[in-house]
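Table S2 (text version). Query chain:
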Amino acid sequence: MSMPIYNIADDIDLTPAMPAQGRDSGSYRRLIWQDPMENGTIVAVWKAEPGIYNYPGRDLEETFVVVEGEAIYSQAGAAPVQIGPGAIVSIARGVPSRLEILSPFRKLATVVPKP
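Corresponding structure-token output:
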């Protein structure tokens, strides 16, 4: 049996993801793992170009670790903060958030959909 080893910096198997505000593209994702149960937990790499990414309150929870790049992050009702490599961000279910990506950005995210 082989053991899967992933390098977060690899740009293989990327698929288009959410576009930056006012553009048709801007981010890409790479699925690393998904719980085989319907609506299971997802682990993915997200890579984004500079731009603004607005997220309405979603019916899921997300925690991510910034691996590369700088951004201004804000959640509804909280002051924006600058984040960079090593920052860990947790987004609760239903909370709108915004990422203003300042430089090429990469994160490793765990997403837990609604049960």
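Notes on Table S2: The chain has a mean pLDDT of 92. Residues 66 and 87 are 5 Å apart (CA to CA).
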